[in-house]
Design goal:
ARM repeats lie at residues 438-480. It catalyses: S-ubiquitinyl-[E2 ubiquitin-conjugating enzyme]-L-cysteine + [acceptor protein]-L-lysine = [E2 ubiquitin-conjugating enzyme]-L-cysteine + N(6)-ubiquitinyl-[acceptor protein]-L-lysine. The structure is a single chain. By secondary structure, this protein is an all-alpha fold. It contains 35 helices and three strands. The chain has helices at 17-32, 42-65, 71-96, 99-104, 106-124, 136-151, 158-180, 187-196, 202-220, 224-245, 248-268, 271-279, 309-317, 339-351, 371-385, 388-407, 410-423, 428-436, 439-446, 452-465, 469-477, 480-490, 494-507, 511-518, 523-533, 536-550, 556-561, 564-571, 580-590, 594-601, 606-616, 619-633, 638-646, 650-660, 663-687; strands at 298-300, 306-308, 336-337. A three-stranded antiparallel beta sheet has the order 2-1-3. Helix 22 (480-490) runs antiparallel to helix 23. The N and C termini lie far apart (104 Å).
């Protein structure tokens, strides 16, 4: 609520006596008949309504007299009309406002009631009771009201102060929990506090969150970042408390059901496996916190805790969106395989002669899983992740973090960029909401930061955001390419450079972006430099980005000029780099450019390498190897053709591909054999 009370004085222009009294009676009755009064400020509101009712009796009696009034009484009545209007506005504001925010502001609101009572007393100072023909009873009551109003003290309900103190302690605990993941909120205490201010049902909680959101918008322009942040903390607390308080009983039933289900699952498995797993003491870290059984397919949820896939999927599918172990709100419903723990579980099972029978939904790539089960699970997860509650939580978090990016110190910006990076890592909805919160321009600016961690977090957050196609357009519109290329060329850390290359790959999925990025004078040289200097992952990021860019013909020449060809050929021999297929794919595209073809033909080591790859390469590698050999042999490539004919391994390898290769490989191998056959015939005729 605002600190200042509205000025509604109308004494500069008096109403006619009859109209003034009618207006006073009407507004007094409106105040006296107000329903569903708020739980906060109960005593101040009830006392004020009692005063207004008493004044209403005065107004009615004066109105019934129907006699002229002295000027001082008209002035008094006009001032009282203004005061009562302010009382009505104040009580209505308490009714419409958030109960929690009113509780936090209880001293301020109490002082507003106190100011209004004092103004009522000053208005009664000029009421000439002795000149009014009213009953003795009404006169005594008004005189008493006048005395009380003159000496009234500020009243702040001690119970509300106590509740506020308890609320602030809970908020501090909740913030500590979110920051350190250690402290636990006592939801019995939270429920008691919220119940005491009228929040008793899920609908009450929803209405309270709506009122808090409205208050946050109201305060955004005037209250400052700290006030808005405090309101957002209250929203978070209500949201979190609602999910915990109203699902607690159901959660216990579900846990019990999971335990029974787990027992049944063990009984239905292979008898020897079951008996061994029950006889042996399973390490606690290998047990699912829900079923207490051995985790056959451990997965990580958004809170960071690990569960068996079957158990957590059942938990989610029954309508929960919290972590069973910590009670934290899950900001997304992705189930990420915990490969490290899975490997340890498998090793433990082998050492203890336990046959590990994985569940039918143990892997997203398991071909034996039924499509109906998969579709059912995906539908349930999609439904939960798309709920308004989850989206509101993400929106609130994103807006808060963007505010920190905009106004925070370097340390706060570093943390905010890191949290946005994590939030954007999963879920298209998250990426959309973060962009809508206005994060992209601030992240682009932070790419120029001298702080290595800020730069790294900013470029990685942009990479994650760019996975959502509409964000690609927003990132390009924010003028990010210059800054991303700067990071790619001379980033503070190798990870920042590699993620900049990955961002270019992601952005270049859109054709218009291929043109813009390819036209940047430093983009191709920077990618080639990373191809030379990066880690294995960095080399792959650079190669895939190059591939995307040279799909657009006009970019091929730039890649050749930047020195990509000899480096890509060199990488074909680098087993540690592990990007043979990526390098072949880029070379195959550069073959379509005259400068690229000329540069590729200069290599003396490429043809033997390609022949070996025809025999030992991957299916994709074989296809690109044939594409390169065929291109090199055409249009003046007789020398390459002769070298192929002289190599005893080339013809058998091509014949093998014609028989057993992929459709594309068979077609190109057959074409290359015909080219070689013609070359061989021409050689014989020349000799003849």
């Amino acid at each position: 609520m605002d600190v200042a009370l509205p000025t509604l004085m109308v004494s500069s222009g008096f109403l006619p006596t009859g109209s003034l009294l009618e207006s006073l009676i009407h507004i007094s009755n409106e105040v006296a008949s107000m329903e569903r009064l708020p739980v906060i400020q109960v005593r101040n509101i009830s006392t004020m309504i009692r005063r207004i009712k008493l004044l209403s009796s005065l107004f009615e009696e004066i109105h019934e007299m129907n006699t002229p009034l002295p000027p001082s009484s008209i002035l008094c009545l006009t001032e009282l009309f203004s005061v009562i209007r302010r009382v009505k506005s104040l009580i209505q504001g308490c009714k419409d406002a958030s109960s929690l925010w009113s509780l936090v502001q209880t001293e301020l609101i109490s002082s507003q009631f106190h100011v209004v009572v004092k103004e009522m007393g000053r208005a009664l100072d000029i009421l000439p009771l002795s000149l009014l023909n009213i009953t003795a009873d009404i006169r005594e009551q008004v005189e008493l009201l006048h005395k009380q109003a003159k000496r009234v003290d500020l009243f702040v309900d001690p119970r509300e102060l106590q509740r506020r103190e308890e609320l602030l302690q809970v908020m501090a605990t909740n913030n500590e929990k979110n920051a350190k993941n250690k402290a636990l909120v006592d939801f019995r205490e939270v429920k008691e506090i919220l119940s005491s201010i009228g929040l008793r049902s899920p609908l009450d909680y929803d209405e309270e969150m709506s009122k808090l959101e409205a208050e946050a918008q109201k305060q955004a322009g005037t209250g400052g970042l700290i006030v808005v942040s405090n309101i957002n903390n209250l929203i978070s607390l209500v949201l979190y408390s609602k999910s915990m308080i109203f699902s607690e009983e159901h959660n216990e039933k579900t846990n019990e059901a999971f335990k029974k289900s787990s027992a049944s699952f063990r009984m239905n498995n292979d008898h020897s496996s079951s008996s061994q797993s029950t006889i042996l003491n399973i390490p606690d870290e290998f047990r699912c916190p829900i079923s207490l059984d051995l985790m056959r397919d451990p997965v990580i949820v958004a809170s960071g805790h690990t569960y068996d896939r079957n158990s957590i999927a059942q938990w989610i599918n029954t309508g929960h969106n919290t972590c069973p172990k910590s009670g934290m709100k899950l900001i997304h419903m992705a189930l990420i395989p915990n490969y490290a723990l899975k490997s340890l579980v498998h090793q433990w099972c082998r050492e203890n002669n336990i046959q590990l029978i994985e569940s039918t939904s143990s892997s997203s790539s398991d071909l034996g899983r039924s499509s109906s089960m998969r579709k059912s699970c995906e539908k349930a997860v999609d439904h939960i992740s798309a709920t308004k509650t989850a989206m509101d939580a993400v929106k609130m978090t994103a807006e808060f973090l963007v505010g920190k990016l905009a106004t925070g110190s370097p340390e706060i910006q570093r943390q905010a960029a890191y949290e946005l990076r994590l939030l954007a890592k999963t879920g298209m909805d998250n990426r959309r909401i973060i962009a809508e919160a206005g994060a992209i321009p601030f992240l682009v600016t932070l790419l120029s930061s001298h702080d290595p961690r800020i730069q790294e977090n900013a470029v990685t957050a942009l990479l994650n955001l760019s996975i959502f196609d509409n964000n690609k357009i927003l990132i390009m519109a924010a003028g990010a390419i210059d800054n991303i290329v700067d990071v790619l060329q001379s980033g503070k850390t190798m990870e920042a450079r590699e993620n900049a290359a990955a961002a270019i790959f992601s952005l270049s999925m859109i054709d218009d972006c291929k043109v813009t990025i390819g036209a940047h004078p430093r983009a191709m040289p920077a990618l080639v430099a990373l191809l030379r200097e990066g880690t294995s992952a960095g080399k792959r990021d650079a190669a895939t980005a190059l591939f995307n860019l040279v799909v657009y013909s006009a970019n091929k020449g730039s890649a050749v000029v930047a020195g990509a060809v000899p480096l890509l050929i060199e990488l074909l021999m680098d087993d540690k780099a592990g990007i043979t297929d990526d390098a072949l794919a880029v070379l195959a595209l550069l073959l379509g450019c005259p400068d690229g073809l000329e540069e590729i033909r200069k290599s003396r080591i490429l043809v033997p390498l390609l022949i070996d790859l025809l025999r030992f390469g991957s299916p994709k590698g074989k296809e690109n190897s044939i594409t390169l050999l065929l291109g090199l042999c055409k249009d003046g490539g007789e020398e390459v053709a002769r070298r192929l004919l002289l190599n005893p391994r080339s013809i058998p390898s091509l014949q093998s591909l014609v028989a057993d290769g992929s459709l594309k490989a068979r077609r190109k191998a057959d074409a290359l054999l015909r080219v070689l056959n013609r070359c061989c015939s021409q050689s014989h005729s020349t000799v003849g």
